[in-house]
Fold this protein.
Amino acid sequence: MGYSVVVDTISQALKLADSSDYEVDYCVYKAGAYEWEIFPFKKSHHQRALWIRDLLLDKQYVEERAIENYFPKRGEACYDFFRPCEFFGFCEMSNDSILRGKEAGVQIEAEDKYQFKYSLEEIIDAQLAKQELRDEGLI
């Protein structure tokens, strides 16, 4: 989804052909029947814009928890990925003691490295505008 949003935005800036909606096939294995079933899902401009908004809300949530230095621990993900979480058994300790030594360095790239700069709001507005044009049959 993210790749299509970037390509769409850059192609619009370069006045290239409009990228269209696309389908994604989700493959589901039916264990009882020993067969695969394919479910096609169409990804529209509107869904791309909503995807960006969802990411922004996730980011906001994490930033708010970081400011409070409190991340709720509800236990529903203790065994995700078929194994116990790496913090299983001591996640109720303070975040500082759990994360000590785990901070990954954030790599910041030079701002002049790329030719294109867009705010997320510009990208969302562009996706929604394209969806409106598509709904009206203009593209």
Notes: The beta strands are 22-30, 35-43. The mean pLDDT is 79.
